[in-house]
Design a protein that fits this description.
This protein is an alpha/beta fold and 662 residues long. The chain has 22 helices and 13 strands. The radius of gyration is 32 Å and the shape is elongated.
């Protein structure tokens, strides 16, 4: 699915950006990205640009002339219209402060005066001023005016024009500062919290507060769902991160507003209510955009933070869902505020047919479907359908957002910068390892063994590989599931006549959230040291179609880090708790090269007893173990207290039914 997503994302990028000529981009007010500078000159330009010119009477967008061609023709007209150029030049001469640099005026003149940066005016600013022999006295007024001589604009009109532009830029710059703060906090906080753990003076303090951060916020509903499949509850530590993000979004949505009304008039709106509503509308749109890069990053299997922090993949997926809720909240507020504002100004009816409004509606609908269709009950009942819908709606949402800001602003105010970051994260979110033909062998109790020869993986603990079986269902070749990695030689007895290694994963797909559908990765190779063996419990979806095959096309993606193991492996004593096929996810930790002081507690259903034979080479190497078949293990808390009383380090693992107790 990740490969399919990357392909769709690439297509969407080409579709979205192909016809768009981008001259510059950035975040308003940051790193020199400013617009309407100098404001005095832009106030003059916008005071005269609405008027008809003598040469523009014949310009029309009708017939076979496109809107772009008409705009280009208008720019050519302005470039050669002395009344138009001289009126703006005289306005700049009158109203711009004396300390305004001449170079800034000339830059504005060459890039903005015609409305098209590619069309330069015939005369420079200095040349136009030199050719104004008589100061103008006629004031340009009235919508039907034809600008056929050098004219004046009123100081009131100029003042209203430039200060409107200034307040718009002020709000846009604040949106950039606030949005960047949210984005950097979302990305940087996991890094800071992880790196604090490496400071010598923080070690003892962190060790003391950890027991208070790991428990679920409500009961034991972190690793298992709330009743009626309402979802999973974050831990206390995760709740702190979520609280910080929610607080930042609420605070930055609520502060920093400043209006022209009632002291001055704003050119675009007729009341303080409309002006403030517009600021809220723009703010919610940008806050939605600034959450998108992190939203997509946290959902990625190749999330760079997985390599840089000690947070697990399941933690980032949980954060992904909470950020998605914040994103949807901003999107809905943005859409509702736009609807109310445009109805209040009377522009609603005419806006319905405009491209920027249509694409905004497309993005909003896609965002609603994305979040609502991601409910846990839908993910578990129809996971493959959810996954396809999720990917398609994500692409539609990104493309809709792109065209929304392009048609609305033509990428002049930096809103598209957030989308560049989002699209870049999607394109590079996965990496492909390759593929081989596998052999679907025996098993029991609904467990199928799949041998994939010729593949070499290090089998590092805490990593997983995603496996595709495209020929099982040719209509859905993108379906895949995660499996853990174990070196082939690990499951080989020293005296065996052939090398036979198996590897597994007890960690189900964190998106699917099903404990019974856990999978395993392993290796089988006759007289070889390479390969993987998958122990798969057949369930609904892709795995239900597994049956005996001599050759089964198997594609592998990864490996990716899923759970940090560095601190676990530094303990004096390692306690492993597993249930059913989940034991395969613990196999990499049982290698003598990984840890030498291990205690294993394993519970198997009667139907899964075949796993004992398949994994005997590894299990026999564990001196301290307790294996029960057909019943549950005892009190985990007592086991951990016993080990802690001896002064050992400890670690708990296993299926969803054990995680809450541990």
């Amino acid at each position: 699915m990740n490969l399919f997503l990357s392909l769709l994302a690439f297509i969407s990028v080409v579709t979205a950006t192909g016809p768009v000529p981008i001259s510059k981009s950035g975040l308003a007010g940051i790193n020199g990205f400013y617009f309407y500078d100098p404001y005095c000159a832009h106030g003059c330009f916008r005071s005269f640009s609405p008027y008809t010119l003598s040469c523009s009477d014949t310009i029309s967008a009708g017939g076979h002339i496109t809107g772009d061609e008409a705009a280009h023709n208008l720019a050519l007209c302005r470039a050669s219209s002395f009344p138009y150029l001289s009126s703006i030049a005289w306005c700049i001469h009158l109203y711009c402060p004396d300390d305004t640099r001449a170079s800034k005026i000339e830059t504005f003149w060459e890039t903005e005066i015609t409305g098209d940066a590619k069309v330069l005016p015939i005369w420079s600013f200095g040349e136009v001023m030199a050719n104004i022999t008589v100061p103008p006295t006629v004031v340009a007024m009235g919508q039907d005016l034809v600008l056929n001589s050098t004219m004046l604009t009123t100081e009131e009109n100029w003042q209203t024009t430039w200060i409107t532009l200034y307040y718009f830029f002020r709000e846009t710059a604040l949106e950039s500062y606030y949005g960047l703060s949210i984005c950097l906090t979302s990305f940087g906080l996991p890094l800071v919290l992880t790196w604090l753990g490496y400071l010598p003076f923080m070690t003892r303090g962190i060790s003391r507060i950890r027991p208070y951060l790991y428990p679920s916020l409500i009961g034991t509903y972190h690793d298992r769902s709330l009743p009626f499949l309402l979802g999973n509850v974050p831990t206390v530590g995760q709740s702190g991160y979520i609280f910080i993000l929610v607080a930042l979004n609420v605070i930055f949505l609520s502060i920093g507003y400043k209006t022209l009304y009632p002291d001055q008039q704003m050119q675009w709106y007729t009341s303080r209510y409309q002006e403030l509503m517009a600021y809220f509308m723009w703010r919610t749109g940008v806050l939605a955009f600034c959450n998108m890069p992190v939203l997509f990053l946290f959902s990625s299997r190749n999330n760079v933070l997985l390599w840089l922090t000690n947070w697990s993949h399941s933690t980032y997926i949980l954060m992904h869902r909470w950020i998605a809720r914040l994103f949807l909240l901003h999107v809905l507020l943005h859409s509702i505020l736009a609807l109310v504002l445009y109805q209040n100004t009377g522009a609603y009816t005419t806006s319905l047919t405009l491209n920027w409004w249509i694409w905004g509606c497309v993005a909003t609908v896609a965002a609603v479907i994305l979040v609502l269709a991601s409910a846990l009950i839908l993910r578990q009942r129809a996971y493959e359908l959810f996954l396809v819908t999720h990917v398609v709606m994500a692409v539609i949402c990104v493309v809709g957002c792109w065209y929304h800001v392009w048609y609305g602003y033509e990428n002049t105010f930096g809103y598209e910068t957030w989308l560049y970051a989002t699209i870049g994260g999607v394109v590079f979110r996965s990496r492909c390892a390759g593929g081989e033909d596998g052999e679907d062998g025996g098993g029991g109790g609904g467990i199928v063994r799949v041998d994939v020869p010729g593949v070499r993986y290090a089998g590092a603990p805490g990593h997983s590989v995603y496996v595709y079986f495209p020929t099982l269902n040719p209509l859905r070749p993108w379906e895949n599931h995660p499996f853990s990695m174990v070196p082939t030689v690990m499951l080989t007895r020293p005296d065996a006549g052939r090398l036979e290694a198996a590897e597994g994963e007890g960690e189900g797909d964190v998106e699917k959230g099903s404990g019974s559908g856990d999978h395993d990765v392993g290796v089988l190779a006759k007289k070889a040291t390479s390969g993987l063996t998958l122990f798969v419990r057949k369930s609904a979806g892709m795995t239900a179609a597994l049956k005996a095959h001599e050759r089964l096309l198997t594609l592998l993606e990864g490996p990716y880090p899923t759970n940090p193991t560095k601190e676990v492996l530094q303990t004096d004593r390692l306690v492993l708790i597993g249930g059913g096929i989940g034991i395969t996810g613990l196999l990499p930790l049982m290698s003598p090269h990984v840890h030498t002081n291990i205690r294993l507690l394993l519970s198997l259903k009667k139907a899964d007893e075949c796993l004992l034979d398949e994994l005997s080479a590894v299990l026999d190497g564990v001196c301290e173990k307790e294996v029960v078949v057909g019943q549950r293990l005892g009190d985990f808390g007592e086991v951990l207290r016993e080990e802690a009383g001896r002064g050992w380090g400890r670690v708990g693992g296993g299926g969803l039914w054990t995680a809450g107790d541990v």
